[in-house]
């Protein structure tokens, strides 16, 4: 069955990749909203895409009109960089929570299915070996660590969506991305520390000949997943064949790509040395340890390890991540260094 899908934040990292995969692999009609179109410019005139340039907060009338006529709503608009959590916590709350709550309530009002991006951040400092969607506790730090406002905002939206579901007022699926990687994640040429996510930040450091700053030594471990694997799972969730994703929560990550941040930096340096023009840059870059207070500010608190259990996605969606981290990083470097 052909679907009509509304994607809010279609020009973002996940949104732009989702659009590309939808146009390539489905017959769905796509409607998109975003502030800009630079990541999706090649698709703007596609006959199955209707794009509106605008601000989520200023286009609520238009958004409600689209929700009434679509089958699935995917609200991807959010600020998701840790430096912003510390420096602008109210901005995080206003966009990530308040603006998205309006979208959720419109889906309730018009009885439309929502596929909502939760986050691996909701688990906080959970001590489980692998985070489970149904049983793992959410462990957040004290109020004087505003780093947690993003996690808390997303967690409360998860609970609101679940509560509407319990009341039979909303059809939903929640998905929790675990450190998705790919081209178009962030601009590695943006020189402001903490303004982009870790892979883009490190690539930028190397290209500018700067030292790579490892927060607290880079011993934190993350499970990275290639964007193509992640979107493959997301397509199954949207399609919802035989109700396989109905009223469910899915972690989307790759436990096989569990590395420390230091190991990630070392791997990037090793790979960049294979690009003739940039090899000399990588040879000269040093790894430096920096205190998190100096890098993010005193409102930051770190997570030592973040690994997903993906058994629900494997069993209910018949999905399996396949791309190893080295291959994924090579794709990103090819995009930025060869184009």
Layout of helices and strands, plus pairs?
Elements: E1 4-8, H1 13-25, E2 29-34, E3 49-53, H2 60-69, E4 72-75, H3 82-87, H4 89-109, E5 113-117, H5 149-166, E6 172-177, E7 180-181, H6 198-207, E8 212-215, E9 221-223, E10 225-226, H7 227-239, E11 248-252, E12 258-260, H8 261-272, H9 279-284, E13 287-290, H10 292-295, E14 305-306, H11 311-316, H12 325-337
Parallel strand pairs: 1-2, 1-4, 2-3, 4-5, 5-6, 6-11, 7-10, 8-13, 9-14
Antiparallel strand pairs: 9-12
Helix pairs in contact: 1-7, 4-5, 6-8, 8-12
Describe this structure in words.
The protein is of the alpha/beta class and 339 residues long. It has a domain at 4-181 and 226-256 and 304-322: NAD(P)-binding Rossmann-like Domain (Rossmann fold, 3-Layer(aba) Sandwich), CATH 3.40.50.720. Helices cover 39% and strands 17% of the residues. It contains twelve helices and 14 strands. The strands form four sheets. The chain has a seven-stranded parallel sheet with strand order 3-2-1-4-5-6-11, sandwiched between helices. 43% of the residues are buried. The model has no long low-confidence stretch (mean pLDDT 94).
Strand count, sense and barrel status of the largest sheet are: 7 strands, parallel
Strand fraction equals: 15-25%
Strands of the largest sheet, in order across it?
3-2-1-4-5-6-11
Q: Class of the domain at 4-181 and 226-256 and 304-322, according to the CATH hierarchy? A: Alpha Beta
Q: Fraction of residues in helices?
A: 25-40%
Instruction: Please report the number of helical segments.
Output: 12
Order of helices and strands: EHEEHEHHEHEEHEEEHEEHHEHEHH
Unreliable runs = none
| CATH arch. level architecture of the domain at 4-181 and 226-256 and 304-322 | 3-Layer(aba) Sandwich
Write down how many β-strands occur, each being a DSSP E stretch of 2 or more residues.
Answer: 14
Structural class: alpha/beta
Q: Average pLDDT value?
A: 94
Fourth CATH level, the homologous superfamily of the domain at 4-181 and 226-256 and 304-322:
NAD(P)-binding Rossmann-like Domain
Oligomeric state of the chains in view:
single chain
At the fold tier of CATH, the topology name of the domain at 4-181 and 226-256 and 304-322 is Rossmann fold
Q: What value does the Rg take, in angstroms?
A: 20 Å
User: Given the C-alpha coordinates, what overall shape results?
Assistant: globular
What is the first-to-last residue Cα distance?
A: 37 Å
């Amino acid at each position: 069955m052909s679907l009509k899908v509304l994607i809010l934040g279609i020009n973002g990292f996940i949104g732009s990749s989702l659009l590309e995969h939808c146009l390539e692999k489905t017959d769905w009609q796509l409607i998109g909203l975003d502030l800009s179109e630079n990541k999706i410019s090649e698709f703007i005139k596609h006959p199955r895409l209707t794009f509106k340039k605008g601000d989520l907060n200023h286009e609520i009338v238009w958004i409600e009109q689209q929700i009434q006529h679509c089958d699935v709503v995917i609200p991807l608009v959010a600020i998701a960089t840790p430096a912003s959590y510390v420096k602008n916590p109210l901005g995080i709350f206003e966009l990530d929570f308040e603006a998205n709550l309006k979208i959720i309530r419109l889906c309730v009002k018009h009885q439309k299915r929502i596929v909502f991006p939760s986050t691996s951040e909701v688990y906080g400092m959970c001590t489980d070996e692998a985070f489970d969607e149904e049983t793992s506790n959410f462990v957040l730090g004290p109020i004087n660590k505003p780093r947690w406002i993003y996690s808390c905002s997303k967690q409360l939206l998860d609970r609101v969506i679940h509560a509407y579901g319990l009341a039979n007022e909303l059809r939903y699926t929640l998905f929790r991305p675990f450190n998705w990687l790919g081209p178009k994640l962030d601009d590695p040429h943006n020189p402001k520390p903490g303004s982009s996510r870790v892979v883009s930040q490190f690539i930028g450091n190397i290209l500018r000949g700067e030292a790579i700053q490892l927060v607290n030594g880079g011993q934190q471990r993350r499970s990275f997943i290639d964007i193509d694997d992640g979107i493959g799972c997301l397509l199954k969730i949207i399609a919802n064949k035989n109700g396989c994703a109905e009223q469910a929560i899915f972690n989307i990550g790759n436990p096989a790509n569990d590395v420390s941040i230091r190991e990630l930096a070392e791997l990037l340096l090793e790979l960049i040395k294979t690009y003739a023009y940039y090899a000399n840059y990588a040879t000269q870059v040093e790894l430096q340890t920096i205190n998190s207070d100096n890098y993010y500010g005193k409102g930051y608190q770190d997570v030592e390890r973040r690994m997903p259990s993906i058994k629900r996605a494997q069993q209910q969606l018949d999905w399996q991540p396949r791309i190893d981290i080295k291959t994924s990083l090579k794709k990103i470097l090819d995009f930025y260094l060869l184009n």
